[in-house]
Amino acid sequence: MKIEIMHRPSFAMAQVDLADGESFVSEGGAMVTMTDNVNIETSTFSRGGGGLLKGLKRMLTGESFFLNKFTARGEGHVTFAPTLVGDIEHISLDGSKNLIVQSTSYLAGSPTLELDTQFGGMKGFFSGESVFWIKISGAGELLVNSFGGIFAKDIDGKFICDTGHIVAFEDTINYKVKKVGGWKATILSGEGLVCEFEGKGRLYMQTHNAPEFGKLIGGKLPPRKQ
Amino acid sequence: MNYEIKHGPSFASLFLNLDTGEQVRTEAGAMVGMSTNLSIKTKAYGGFLKALIRKLVGGESIFQNTYTAEGGAGEIIVSPTLPGSIKAKTLAKGQPFILQASAFLACTPDVTLKTKYGGLKALMSGEGLFLLQAGGEGELWFNSYGNIIEIDVDGEYIVDTGHIVAFEDGLSFKVKKVGGLKSLLLSGEGFVANFKGKGKLYIQSRTVSSLVGWIAPMLPAR
Fold it and tell me: What is the ipTM of this complex?
């Protein structure tokens, strides 16, 4: 398997070259092109059939209920692209640590990776952002996407990140949601609640915040007519 | 203090390193990430009443945040809401700099900001042109939707009002019709800003109002 990311960073698209019998899994709607010897199979599965429950949990995150599995018969390739303009990052996982991915940042990955939706808890809810994370475990290749550019921040100690800018993080770092400052700053600063990360590990961040962009454009659109 | 603008021109983001006690003031909601030893203070800028009017009419934010590195050096990453570019401007005493209200991203603490009205004509142009006048000494960072293009004006120059990002004090502009009445109604340009004087003019390669105008008719009726 070979993965190449083209048209970075504004309009990134990933090409995954598959050998005979190799597979790759993506979220629904992410496939752009593929060779005609690639077979597509749609299910709720993750690692050999995660089942209905995992599909339902995924649906709660705003992700598609179904995942697509692409399998090559002979050599072939599939290309994938996210919905929003921005970058794609290729992360190789060796199984020694898990990665927590913000639910809209998952694009595609090896079939050996296990996806499990996690409820971020009430603290996530209060931050006004996605309440859900996808926990990715096992060894394999993973593609995550961003709104804007992606950059990695190696944390050793503490670091604060706005909830709308988190792409993914290794589970060797913990986070707690806290106020950005005093009550006045929390209410008026436009920052509200933030994630404070602590530990040693890598955090992937995105330069831009999709919900904020959506609110800015949406606020200027005319109301829908009856 | 040192800084770097990365991921431009499409997704420019400002990466700042502050020494102990150093401060930076930012647009509300622009913080992406920061060290835990940075404190935050929130204040209305350009006078609360003017800020409120700007908020109600122009949709700009009332508040700005001042971040201070306490008890050691620290870093902060700041991004605008819109995808686009960021430029830095070093301000000297007695050389104010004018920017469109939505173009402000961040500044050092000795930079002052005043709200200026673009006038009735500017409002008529449909861009809701509220301007900020930056003065004092220090560094100012401003952002655009699309790329920022720097133009040296000496004499007169015409810009579509929605594309104005910022300009030096040696320049002033009047809003006028693009041509005759026929052009005004049919050219798709409407009102333009006619700049006069000598100085640098910064424009953006795209406008939010055009994007909104393109998307709006495609929304399904419910």
Answer: 0.82
Is A57:A114 a contact under the CB 8 Å cutoff? no
CB A25 within 8 A of CB A110: yes
Q: Which residues pair with B173 in a beta bridge?
A: B195
For residue range A106-157, what is the model confidence (pLDDT) as tens digits?
Answer: 999 999 999 887 766 544 444 445 557 889 999 999 999 999 999 999 999 9
Q: What is the mean pLDDT of residues A93-116?
A: 92
- Mark out the alpha helices in chain A (DSSP H runs): 51-60, 122-126, 183-188, 210-218
What are the residues whose beta carbons fall under 8 Å from the beta carbon of A196, sequence distance 6 or more?
Answer: A158, A159, A160, A175, A176, A177, A178, B36
Instruction: Select from B31, B36, B221 the Cβ nearest to the Cβ of A158.
Output: B36
Q: Please, which pLDDT band fits residue A47 given cuts at 50, 70 and 90?
A: very low
Q: Is the separation of the CB atoms in B135 and B169 below 8 Å? A: no
Percent helix, percent strand, percent coil in chain A, to nearest 5: 15, 50, 35
CA of B153 to nearest chain A CA: how many angstroms apart?
31
Contact B219 A180 (CB under 8 A): no
Residues of chain B in contact with residue A221, where contact means CB-CB under 8 angstroms, are 212, 215-216, 219
Residue of chain A whose Cα is closest to the Cα of B207: A217
Question: A173 with A200: CB under 8 angstroms?
Answer: yes
pLDDT, one tens digit per residue, over A192-225 is 788 999 999 999 999 999 988 998 898 888 887 6
| C-beta separation of A104 from A130 below 8 A | yes
Asked if B41 lies within 8 A of A185 by C-beta distance, the reply is yes
Question: How close is the nearest chain A Cα to the Cα of B155, in Å?
Answer: 35
